[in-house]
Write a structure and sequence with these properties.
Elements: E1 5-6, E2 28-30, E3 33-35, E4 39-43, H1 69-79, E5 85-91, H2 101-111, E6 114-121, H3 131-136, E7 139-144, H4 146-165, E8 169-174, E9 177-179, H5 190-198, H6 201-206, E10 209-212, E11 215-217, H7 221-228, E12 242-243, H8 250-259, E13 277-279, H9 285-291, H10 296-299, H11 302-310, H12 322-331
Parallel strand pairs: 1-8, 4-5, 4-10, 5-6, 6-7, 7-8
Antiparallel strand pairs: 2-3, 9-13, 10-11, 11-12
Helix pairs in contact: 1-2
């Protein structure tokens, strides 16, 4: 029933290449504006109707939050003076939990920030999505997990019909394995923090840039990690971003921020792209945070870290190690 179905690592469609970890390519300048390699993101909501163990937005532990269309329009319109993406992804949490998703999409379109708008969803509510929302989108990216696949099978014919009727591209990805995204214990090893940050493809190559409540962030992890830390070590997530403004030097500030070789505050807890791989499960919410109370050192895939440190060309991550190729075969 599923259209063209990719495994987890096939979702990372060849990002820009690099000659080495120091040659970061997280943006280019086009017609005087900063352009990310592929897309930028906004979070329609922080919460989700699923509870994936290794959700890298920490949605199972998130306090429900809904993005206000007026605020999104304000932020994106202001950012558009210095920045434009080919694609903007509306993500979550689960974005279909937003009570006025159509207004949010229209705010994105009105801002001029992008050419294409993509909704990223787990699909469990997609068969119920209103036709006006379908019409407002360019693409729907459907994330499929083993626990949801049977449910989606029941509704896939409706989803496919709606996509065809409203001329919306439908991309489907199967995620059987997740990469561990962060540690709630973290590490004080400055050398390890720098190694993880230096090899972080999200920050330096893929351009997973997020706009959130008036601020611009290199990656969504620096938004969500501080929100789930123990109160004794919690901090204001905004310290890892830059406030969007209309100052004449804002674009230079943004470029310097994107190119900075200094780790973010959240990097003490984040695993970047070198977290170990494990099967996607959905524990009960009360157990979710306890699963992540493990020191960073125990969660790092040191073979992958070493590979990224010496790699001259970074493409599809499924080719890095045999275990990822095996995962791909088992997902297919």
């Amino acid at each position: 029933m599923f259209p063209k179905l990719f495994s987890t690592y096939k979702s990372f469609l060849k990002p820009w290449t690099t000659k080495g970890p120091d040659d970061w390519r997280c943006f280019k300048l086009v017609d005087g504006k900063i352009v990310p390699p592929h897309s930028c993101e906004i979070n329609a909501v922080d919460h989700c109707n699923l509870g994936c163990t290794d959700c890298n937005h920490a949605s199972p532990a998130a306090v429900p939050r809904i993005a206000e269309p007026d605020i999104v329009l304000r932020d994106l319109s202001l950012l558009f003076k210095s920045y434009k993406a080919d694609t903007l992804k509306i993500i979550g949490g689960e974005p279909l939990l937003h009570p006025d998703l159509l207004s949010l999409i229209r705010a994105v379109r009105e801002s001029g920030i992008c050419n294409n708008i993509v909704l990223v969803t787990n699909g469990t509510l997609l068969h119920q999505m209103d036709g006006d929302i379908w019409d407002a989108l360019d693409e729907v990216e459907l994330s499929v997990y083993p626990v949801t696949r049977k449910l989606l099978d029941l509704n896939m014919s409706t989803i496919l019909q709606n996509a065809e009727k409203h001329k919306v591209r439908l991309s489907t990805y199967l995620y059987k394995y997740f990469q561990i995204a962060f540690s709630l214990v973290g590490t004080t090893d400055v050398s390890l923090i720098r190694r993880i940050y230096k090899t972080c493809l999200r920050a330096h190559i893929w351009g997973c840039q997020s706009i959130y409540e008036g601020y611009f962030f290199k990656c969504p992890q620096c938004i969500y990690i501080p929100k789930i830390l123990n109160q004794s070590v919690a901090y204001d997530y905004r310290k890892d971003g830059i406030k969007i403004n209309c100052a004449s030097d804002f674009q230079d500030i943004l470029k310097n921020y994107l190119m900075s070789k200094e780790p973010l505050f959240a990097c003490r807890y984040c695993l970047g792209n070198v977290g170990k791989i494990r099967t996607n499960t959905m524990p009960i919410t009360s157990e979710w945070t306890s699963i992540h109370r493990v020191p960073t050192e125990q969660l790092v895939d040191y073979n992958k870290l070493g590979f990224l440190e010496i790699s001259e060309t970074i493409y599809d991550m499924s080719n890095i190690r045999v275990q990822y190729e095996d995962a791909e075969r088992s997902c297919g």
